[in-house]
Amino acid sequence: MSEKTPVDFWFDPLCPWAWMTSRWVLEVEKVRDIEVHWHLMSLAVLNEDKLDELPADYREMLEVKAWGPVRVVIAAQEEHGREVLGDLYTALGTRIHNREEGPGRDTVAAALKDVGLPESLMDHWDDTPYEPQLRASHKEGIDKVGQEVGTPVIAVPGADGEQLAFFGPVVTPAPKGEDAAKLWDGTLAVASVPGFYEIKRTRTKGPDFSNL
User: Fold this and answer.
1) InterPro entries attached here (predicted)?
2) φ and ψ of 104, to 5 deg
3) How many CB atoms lie within 10 A of CB 109?
4) Per-residue confidence in pLDDT tens, the chain, 212 aa
5) Contact 96/13 with Cβ under 8 angstroms?
6) Against a cut of 0.90, is the pTM above it?
7) Bridge-partner residues for 167, per DSSP?
């Protein structure tokens, strides 16, 4: 039997589009021979040098809501192992996005409880000694695709052995079954073309979590 193809996925739990893409990748895991490995990135880190250029409401979201959850998640990784990230992200995303509980302290604390992680991890909400690890994880992902994109970042082994990385795909709702497989195959096909950078069209609706 061949080994599963490793798929590295960088996420920020606040991003609804990354959440949608992550559920698609888990669907792909059922129909293609892949294994997803989760990594943390941070919209707060990504945008910290350009806050003055951002709309006021988005800037406020980054300053007020974005740091706490990723600090807690990186602490969970460092103290309990990277293998907890997948389940913790699922618990966080389900509460933040599907149930519309928002990314506050109570939501994150409840998500920790959902997956059996200690509430003491909430001590990292306002400050954490693991910020260097958070920034290193973020840099690892963003270095693969460049500063002009956000979350999610996906990386897979290319034909030449080097990682092939891309932002997205941004899709709603998350495809299921063979539709998920077709999107996966097509994404890998276009991303593998040397010199290919972007396909894009205007979004006409927001994230649809109805089938998650």
Assistant:
1) Rv2466c-like (IPR053977), Thioredoxin-like_sf (IPR036249)
2) -75, 180
3) 16
4) 558 999 999 999 999 999 999 999 999 999 999 999 999 999 999 999 888 888 999 999 998 999 999 999 999 999 999 999 999 999 999 999 999 999 999 999 999 999 999 999 999 999 999 999 999 999 999 999 988 888 999 999 987 878 899 999 999 999 999 999 999 999 999 988 888 888 888 888 889 888 88
5) yes
6) yes
7) 153
Reported residue count of the chain is 212
Strand ranges inside the chain, DSSP E? 5-11, 34-40, 153-157, 163-167
From residue 55, give the alpha-carbon distance in Å to each of 49, 79, 83, 164: 14, 36, 36, 32
At the fourth CATH level, the homologous superfamily of domain 5-192 is: Glutaredoxin (3.40.30.10)
Sequence-separated (6 or more) residues with CB below 8 Å from residue 112: 72, 76, 88, 91, 118, 119, 121, 122
Find, among 201, 195, 203, 192, the residue nearest to 159 by Cα.
Answer: 192
Distance, CA of 13 to CA of 19 (rounded, Å): 7
Side chain identity at residue 204, one-letter code: T
Radius of gyration of the chain, Cα coordinates, nearest whole angstrom: 17
Q: Which two tokens stand for residue 82?
A: 């990277």
